[in-house]
Each structure stands twice: as C-alpha cells, then as structure tokens.
Amino acid sequence: MNILISGGSGFLGSAFSRELMTRYRAQNKELHITWLTRDSSQAHPDGVNMMTYNELAKTDKGFDVILNLAGAGIADKRWSDERKETLLASRVKPTESLLEFIARSSSKPKLLVSGSAVGWYGTQGNKPLTESSGYETDFSHRLCDEWEQLALQATEYDVPVVIVRTGIVIHPDGGMIGKLLLPFKMGVGGQLGDGKQVMSWISREDWVGAAIFVIEKHLAHSNSQTIQDASLNNVLTTSSNTPAVVYNLTAPNPVTNYTFTKALGSWLNRPTIFTLPEFLLKLLFGEMSTLLIDGQKVLPQALLDAGYEFKQPTLKQALEEQAS
After folding, report:
1. Distance CA 185, CA 174 (A)
2. What is the DSSP string of 57-113?
3. Distance between CA 156 and CA 158 in Å, rounded?
4. pTM (2 d.p.)
5. CA within 20 to 30 Å of 102's CA: 44, 67, 181, 183, which one?
6. Is the dihedral of CA 110, 129, 10, 73 positive or negative?
7. Contact 298, 127 (CB under 8 A)
8. Strand ranges in the chain using DSSP code E only, listed in sequence order
9. What is the bridge-based pairing of β-strands 198-199 and 255-256?
10. 2 has which bridge partners?
11. Tens digits of per-residue pLDDT, 113-154?
12. How far is the C-alpha of 148 from the C-alpha of 163, rounded, in Å?
C-alpha cells in the first residue's frame, strides 16, 4: 500500500502510521507512508516520507489511499469569529489541495478517507444517532458538513470516498484525556453541568483499528462499487455514480458525563467532588460550551454491521488498557 496522510503528525495520524507500519512489517507486506506537511523539516518516524503542499502540487506520484486528517482542534480555543474562520480554513485548504492533486493525477487513488466529527449531527441530546440519522444545524454541523461536502467532490474524479465521523478520542497521550489529567490528578476534576449529557467516545486504539479496517475492507474489493453496501445504511448522496459512505468512529457504549467523570477519577484514584455549573461553562467558553454541556449519543452502527470488533468497547477498558 502507498498511502498519503494529511495531518500525519497529529494525535490520530501518528498513531495510525505506527500501527499500520507494525502490522505490515509483521505480515511482510509492502507499505509506503507519506505525510503531507507545510514544514519539510518536521520530525517524523523512520520509514515515513515527507511531502510539502508545494511538492504535492507538482508531483506525478500515485497513491493507493489518501487519509485526510488535517484540521485545527475544535476545542482548543474559544469560538471567536476569527477562530471559526481558522477552524474552517484549516480543513478546507488541505482538502482543496488534495482535490487539485486528484484532479490532475493520471493514476487516481483507489480511496479517499476524509475526517469529520460527530458534531455533524448537531445537538440532539440523548437521542440515539446512527449513520442514517439527520442533523440539527449549529456551528459544529456547518463546519463538519462543509468539510465533508468538499471531500465528496473526489467522487467526480471517480475516486470512492469514506467519511469518518469521530467522537471524543480517549488516550492518555493527548486529546481530551491529556487535557484533563492535570486537574483530575490535582483533585479538582468534576462533572460538567448536571452530568447527564451523553459523551460519544472511542479509544485511540479502536479509532486506529477501525480506520485500518475500513481501508482494507474497501481495498479488498477489485470493483470499487462494492464500497457501498445497502444493508449498512451509510451510503451518502453525491452528484456522481462513484460510491461514498460514512462511518461513525465511536465506541458502542457511550456514557454520561457523570459516569465519565467517576471513571476517570477512579482510574487516577482521585476525588471528583467538584461541579462546573452550566452558567459558568457558558461564561468561560461562550458558544463552544455546547461541546461540554450538550450531549450526543452517536452509535457505530455501520462499523458493527461491517464486522469490526472493538478491542476496548467500554470506557474502563479504554482507560486501563491504553495506559498499561
């Protein structure tokens, strides 16, 4: 496999690259990984090639798969108008560069896997959401939808597309857990609001495993049209006959914020007696507080129906096994 990854050095892209290299070496299979970057001097693992966006605009190299993960963290800063523009641009510009490459490439990729988030569904409380569910319009939905619709344009060049809508990724190395470790270790961690909001999460190990599963599942079919399986109810509508599907990358057991708080406190052996009330969260984070206050119960129905077996289906496993 020859794979190009935007956002390869990030929290997910780096873990994906390591696991893919480990698996392919163990199976004695050929693998070439290239990270797309704006800085060619960026640190990277042995065995990973680097390509700048300027080089991408000129290269005639072909790739079997493109994994598009580039994008600024949605929860890293308060959502000012300027920050919203940054969040959108950090997703749109890399995707546009990839589309330009695909358009002029004489050897088209066999698959484009493009990132998104469960924020696509908008705020819907505790209502179970699968790949066939609708959405509520808010900033998170608009951000994800614009990113998805742009990536789906690859189907116009006969490149099948898989959209992966990711939940909260759990791993001590970073992400949400990385940000919470210090306050929880200091004994000042606690639930957010009333704690009843549902959190749709996935361990980083399962995110990586699911992403590899989806890629290999679709590459295994010589006819790209078999990417679509009507029984999975995850087919996306495009202007092209080239197939496109979506997978929710979440664990099958979402939890309330209260349960999450208690599990994290128990794992760290620290008290969780504090509560950040809703009004204070809104004061501190503004519109972005919706990520903390409003729940989403997003289920990985298509992934389960396709046969993926989760290694860490419960939060307890995700916390304990990944830190061991």
Report:
1. 15
2. TT-----SEEEE-----TTSS---HHHHHHHHHHHHHHHHHHHHHHHH-SS--SEEE
3. 6
4. 0.93
5. 44
6. positive
7. no
8. 2-6, 32-37, 48-52, 65-68, 111-117, 128-129, 161-166, 168-171, 174, 190-192, 198-199, 201-203, 244-249, 255-256, 274-276, 297-298
9. antiparallel
10. 32
11. 999 999 999 999 899 999 999 999 999 999 999 999 999 999
12. 7
What's the CATH number for 2-169+202-250+300-310?
Answer: 3.40.50.720
Q: Which of 201, 232, 238, 237 is nearest to 217 (CA)?
A: 232
Alpha carbon separation from 127 to 59, 90, 134, 180, 314 (Å, rounded):
46, 30, 11, 27, 20
Mean pLDDT, rounded, for 145-167: 97
**Cα separation of 270 and 177, whole Å?**
15
Whether 252 contacts 302, CB under 8 Å: no
- 165 token code pair: 């809508």
The DSSP bridge partners found for residue 49 are 34
Closest CA to 114 of 72, 80, 150: 150
* Token representation of residue 70: 């580039």
Token reading at 55? 């080089």
Tokens of 146: 């614009």
User: What phi, psi does 116 have (nearest 5°)?
Assistant: -160, -165
- Provide the token pair at 212: 């590899």
CA distance 45 to 17: 9
228: left (phi over 0), alpha (psi -120 to 50) or beta: beta
